Structure formats: C-alpha cells, structure tokens
Amino acid sequence: MNNVECFEKLRKIFPFKNYIINQSLSGAYKTISDVVTMHLKPGQEILDFGSGPCDKSALLQLMGYKCTGYDDLNDAWHKADGNENKIFSFIESVGMNFVKKNDKQFPFANNTFDCIMMNDVIEHLHNSPKNILELLLKKQKINGILLIIVPNAGNI
User: Fold this and answer.
1) CA distance 109 to 135
2) Total Cβ atoms within 10 A of residue 83
C-alpha cells in the first residue's frame, strides 16, 4: 500500500473518530510520512517518543516500518471512558510495540532506532529539552534521523 492508502486505512481503524481531522493525507501525517520515506526503508525501526494514541506511528507501521510508541498516557482523555484500553487494542491491531512510561529507567538500548520522532512534544516540556534530546540521541543509530515537529502558531 502507498502512503495515501495507508492513511485511508488508518482513518477507518483508528478508534477515536473525531481525532484525525484530516480528510486526506496532509498536515503532520504527510510531513512525517514524506520525511520517513525519503530517509528510511520499510522495516527500519522508529521510536515515537510522546506518541499519545500512536496515530502518526501507526501510519508508518502500516507503511511497513517497525514502530514503537512511548508515552505516559497521562492526558485526561487517555484515562476517560476506557480510552487507554482502546489505545492498547488499536496498537496491537496494527502490530506496533508500545512502552508505557513509568518511573524506572528509559527502557531502550543504545543504538536501537533508525528514527526517533517527537510530534508536538517539545512544547510540553517544562525545562530545557537538552537532557531528553541527549538521551534520545544515544538510542538512535549512527546516521539515524531525529524528526521533531512542533505546532504551527499560525494554525492555532
């Protein structure tokens, strides 16, 4: 399946119907899929740091990449109405890995991921992102890519 077909499948299977507002492959979904396909081959490993419900990484998983989501799932909506279980069921249905953050050490070995992405994460950090970025870069393979996307204030 190509990127557009994978996006259409994602829209059909994603458990939160009003979450993906894009009607076609556009916005962050397009940017992420374009950058990843430009720099990586299917089968390479991607960590989605701060993944939330894994909608962006699930798109990449459907495109043939090996994705792992990582999040604390502490947003209020994650905890409401059994949504966390819906997220876990969705992640399993697309064949992704997911690690829920806890207070223990960051659970990934060094030089593991071909790509680490942070989509709308940096702006939620209360302090400098330096320590997190240094930690993530240790987990990234040599010549891997770090994909950071931040909100566009003009689109708020």
Assistant:
1) 11
2) 17
End-to-end CA gap in the chain: 32
Q: Considering the entire predicted model, what is its pTM?
A: 0.94
pLDDT digits (tens, 9 = 90+) for 70-93: 999 999 999 999 999 999 999 999
Taking CA atoms, 82 is separated from 52, 77, 86, in Å, by 15, 9, 7
CA atoms within 13 A on the CB side of 77: 6
Q: Compute the half-sphere exposure of residue 81: CA atoms within 13 Å on the CB side of its CA.
A: 3
DSSP secondary structure letter of residue 134: H
Cα four-point dihedral sign 118, 147, 151, 96:
negative
